[in-house]
Each structure stands twice: as C-alpha cells, then as structure tokens.
Write a structure and sequence with these properties.
Layout lengths: L1 H12 L10 E4 L2 E4 L5 E7 L4 E8 L9 H13 L4 H9 L3 E9 L4 E8 L4 H16 L5 H18 L3 H14 L5 H10 L2 H8 L3 E10 L7
Parallel strand pairs: 3-7
Antiparallel strand pairs: 1-2, 4-6, 4-7, 5-6
Helix pairs in contact: 2-8, 3-4, 5-7
Length: 221
Amino acid sequence: MKKELEPIISNYFGSLANLQRDETEVVDGSQEKKEKQPREIIEEQDIQQGKLHIGYRTNVTYEDDDYFALQLFNGVFGGFSHSKLFINVREKASLAYYAASRVESHKGLLIVMAGIESTKFDAATKIIFEQMEAMKAGDFSEADLEQTKAVFKNQLLETMDVPRGKIELEYHNVLSKKPRPINEWLELIEQVKKEDIVRVANKVQLDTVYFLKGKEADQHE
C-alpha cells in the first residue's frame, strides 16, 4: 500500500517539499532573522464561555535532540492533570473551566488552551505567563519531572496498544525521515534531566494570544 501511495502523493504534493520558509529580511544590505513581536487578537461571538488560545514557537521539532525534553516540558507545564496550568489556573485560581497545553511536533509549536469567563482574560493570561516564566527559571521539582515521565511513558504504551497509536508513531517517523522505534522513545524520555527542560523552556517564544469572548463582555478585568 505504501509503494502505491507514494507516487500519488509525490505527484500532487511533491513540489511542496522544496518550499522553505524564509524568516530573514534584508537590513542595511545584510540578512537578519526576523524578530516577530507577539500579537494579541480578540474577537467576539454570542457565546457564554470565552476561549483563550496562546501560541508559542518552541524552536524544537521531532527531528531535534531536544524533542523529548520538549515533551516533558509540556507535561510539567500543561500537558497533564498535575501540570502547572491545571493546578494554578484551574484549581487554585478557579479562572478556567479547563487549562492545558499541547505540542505540535513537526511545526515546533506549543498551544495553550483555556476556557474562561470573558471578563477573566487579564487574570488568566497573567497566571499562564507566570507559569511559563516559572518553567524557564526551573521552578519545578525532580518529583514533578519523575511523575511526568511516568505518566508520559504510560500514556505512550497505552497508545501503542491500539492500531491508531501505531499509525501515529509511523506517521512521525515517515514525515520526519528520522525513525524512532517505541523502545527508543522510552529510553530517551528516561534520559531527560531537569536542566534539559529548563534549556528547552528558554527557547520558547510567545507568538500570538487569541481570545474569543462573549459579546456582553466589553471590558477586561
């Protein structure tokens, strides 16, 4: 099946493989990397629960050696129920109906997602940004890291018990052209240290804050 599909995909999408994103601009006759300023986008709809999405650029993708450190960073930050976002935004401050984050492995993106009251935008974003700064400062324990490793490995093994999970792993391997069998995932997860996560955290850059709020909420609190 793979051999049959490859020429079809190449025929329709092959030209896309040669496209490269240009992130440089000419300044005084020389090329410099663009430094994008974070954007804030606020839209309104007739909804009761506001939807807050915050996008970060991680500067790490599946092919990179820091990929597993990034996954564990996300687990401590917002990926699991013991994470900083869940505990501090949802449980302690009661500012969100849900608060979590996920990694887009091949685009190098980190997305924070929270459901909040439309009047709680400022308070919620403040605490979310504080959790990111805490990660960059290494403000989490070895116990947090070990718990995250255990949960991540268990989740991974459960995923591999179903055909969809095996397909997802193969998708990563084919798309990145860097095969990593499941046993390598488990080994590399275990090797990650706290300083690796702090290093990855300090690569993360805020890109866009998007908030979809209810029409009745005209002011932030």
